[in-house]
Amino acid sequence: ERNITIESDKSSDDKIKELIRTDDKTEIKIGTNYVINTSDLIYFRLKKILKSDNKTSLIDNFNNKAETNGFEYDAENKKFKSKDLKIIDKDLNKYITKNSLVDLNNNQIAAKDVEMYFSKKANFGENARLKGNYMISDNNETLIQKGVFTTCKPNDDCPPWAMQSGSIKHDKKKKIIEYK
Q1: 45 CB-contact burial (10 Å; exposed 0-12 / middle 13-18 / buried 19+)
Q2: How far is residue 51's CA from residue 19's CA, in Å, rounded to a whole number?
Q3: Phi, then psi, of 37 in degrees rounded to 5
Q4: From CA 79, how far away is CA 138, in angstroms rounded?
Q5: Considering only CA atoms, which of 170, 152, 153, 169 is closest in space to residue 161?
Q6: What is the pTM of this model?
Q7: What gap in Å lies between CA 150 and CA 131, rounded to an integer?
Q8: How far is CA 133 from CA 130, 161, 168, 177, in A?
Q9: For 60-86, what is each residue's pLDDT tens digit?
Q10: Chain-centre distance of CA 152, in angstroms?
């Protein structure tokens, strides 16, 4: 009914608790747009929640790849929640975040405590990176609140220079960073 396919070599169905468990490797296909690879999945049928506490990857049809050490997917609202998420987007930019919510309906990510490392293709410099309190990102732009940007080589001390702003917008198509 929600166009979700779950494939695993071993699974069990608990009719009393209304849940399905898989053991070992599990692949979840959500329509034709998303594939989740995980293991030891629990599907709570009444709540329509899929959950695993193991290493998981989420790949979309745009070639964005997310990795986490556990997730919860709300099949009713198409929301993928995780902690300690690492994303490599189609442009090879890397995002690291403590808490995140991926809205599969709108292809958007909302995250707290985010670090963004630009790829060399972005032409901001080899060490260009952004850090901020929270982020909202989609296919066209990333908005980071209370952020810091620098292109200095990472070290244990503060970078020699950095730009701070209440709001930082990265236009992915134009490859421009705007500050407010």
Answers
A1: middle
A2: 11
A3: -110, 125
A4: 14
A5: 152
A6: 0.87
A7: 9
A8: 10, 19, 11, 17
A9: 988 899 999 999 999 999 999 998 999
A10: 26
- What is the SS3 assignment for 88? strand
* DSSP alpha helix (H) spans, the chain: none
**HEC secondary structure over 32-80:** CCEEEEEECCEEECCCCEEEECCCEEEEECCCCEEEECCEEEECCCCEE
Q: What ranges make up the beta strands (E) of the chain? A: 4-14, 19-30, 34-39, 42-44, 49-52, 56-60, 65-68, 71-74, 79-88, 94-103, 108-117, 129-137, 141-150, 163-171, 176-179
pLDDT digit string, tens, across residues 152-174 = 888 777 677 788 999 999 888 88
What's the full length of the chain, in residues? Answer: 180
> Whole-angstrom Cα distance, residue 119 to residue 98?
21
Q: How far apart are CA 125 and CA 179, in angstroms?
A: 18
Please write the tens of the pLDDT for every residue from 90-130. Answer: 889 999 999 999 999 988 999 999 999 998 877 787 888 98
Cβ 140 vs Cβ 173: under 8 Å: yes
